[in-house]
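Sorry, can you check?
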Amino acid sequence: MNLQQYFDFNRFYKLLKFDLSFNSKKYLTFLGVLIIVLFILDLILLDSTSNYRILENNNRAYFYRKSDYQVSLFITFLIALFLVVSSSFPAFRKKESTSNFLLLPASTFEKFLIQFFIRILIFSPLFILIFWVDFKLASIIYNLLDFKKDILIPDFTVWDVFSYKMKLSDKVVILLSILSFASYLLVNAVHFKKNAVLKTIVVFGIFAFTVFLLNVILSHLFLPNEVNGFDVKIFHRYLENGLRSDQFCVYVIGLFSSLFLLPLTYFKLKEKQV
């Protein structure tokens, strides 16, 4: 088997340079909008904090928890990742650009890898860095303008987002679940020609509702006396280390979905190439 047929570093590097130069305006515009939106959001989050302690003079001293920062970063990251990954392979939105993209002198695997590399591997740490810088700037502006007196904003590093108190195994599960989520978005970006973002939302909504409806039906079949209407009753057993069986099932799905979805994305792309 000739591996260069599937991947050649020089060919991959040229394709990467082409993608960055061809889509540079789109990437820079998106990053500019992202920086502005996150800065405004950080100001709102700081001003809406309700954490405070009572001082000796009965005044309130407000403070912002690191956990609040971590949660807000995680939620906004998932939203941004959804927008970025679901808009992958933008050339497939038009017939002319589709033909030009398929005729590029690169293998199918390299074309797949470029989108995975830029929109997942590069964007993820870049978002964390942008969010941290924006939060620092928002903290400075907030204190200068004195929106709310005596607010204490903790000083932490860019990677403190990973210091959230949980087991290492849970952190690994979350990271791999995010990879599975991104893989789902990537395969839809290849599959849908137009309105990929909207159709991805619709498909996910239909899937979630179908799973919910299936659980409702099973609950009524096996526990008719314990559920009413759209109630859901799920059996679970406690495994080792306090892990429940239903949590274990969710973990397995989050861990291994990408092992199916990433190859599916590659073969969907290969179908278009043929």
About this structure: The longest strand covers residues 52-54.
